[in-house]
Amino acid sequence: MRQQNLFFFIIFALIILFLSGCTIAVALGLLQPQEHIDMFLSEVGNRWGLATGSAFLVILSLWSLLAVFRRPREREVIIRESGLGRIQISAAALENLIRRAARDVRDVREVKPVLRFDQDGLVILLHMSVNPEANLPQVSQDVQGIVQEYLEKKAGVQVSKVQVIIQSVASDTRPRVE
Fold it and tell me: Are 101 and 111 in contact (CB under 8 A)?
């Protein structure tokens, strides 16, 4: 969820919470809303305010539904622009290249790349699972170098950083024969 959407979802949730609380209070007999509603709606300004607030909630609800069903745009990296046109590669393709390069390093079991872009180039965050007998600093350094070199050579993408997070040290899961 994007940061700008979070504000509207919080407001929407608070409004729903307030309305639900009022409904529960009416259902339990704690509030007698009819006389309060009649007195409130007797003034024209209050009716316009209620209509405006309701229209705002309808727009917010529709916007929330659209935000949920909208597909996120796939980020693409521009590799090169020439007189013939632009060459781009998708983030999914880059992730596949990263997985392929990292699997070539001994003792790496699984790699989950996260891509970010900054002014210096591509920033790669690698969540890795490695074998327990591996030398973790050496494996991490090998993966950083191989991934950077592989992407720059194969995809022509400028890599500014390759950060490694070793999430698990997984043992070999072969079935034992007894």
Answer: no
> Cβ distance 127 to 108 under 8 Å?
no
Domain-located, residue 60: yes
d(CA 68, CA 1): 9
Beta strands per DSSP E along the chain: 76-82, 85-90, 108-118, 121-130, 159-169
| Structural domains counted in the chain | 2
121-132 per-position pLDDT tens digit = 788 999 999 988
Count how many Cα atoms sit within 13 Å of the Cα of residue 18 in the half-sphere of its side chain: 6
Instruction: Quote the pTM value.
Output: 0.55
Mark whether 56 and 85 lie in a shared domain. no
- Using CA atoms, how far residue 85 sits from 76, 78, 79, in Å, is 15, 11, 11
Distance CA(53)–CA(120), nearest Å, equals 46
- Residue 176: inside a domain, yes or no? no
pLDDT per residue over 11-41, tens digit each?
878 888 998 888 888 788 887 878 778 888 8
| Residue 112 sits in the same domain as residue 53 | no
Query: Taken in order 152, 155, 157, 161, is the CA torsion positive or negative?
Result: negative
Residue 175 included in any domain: no
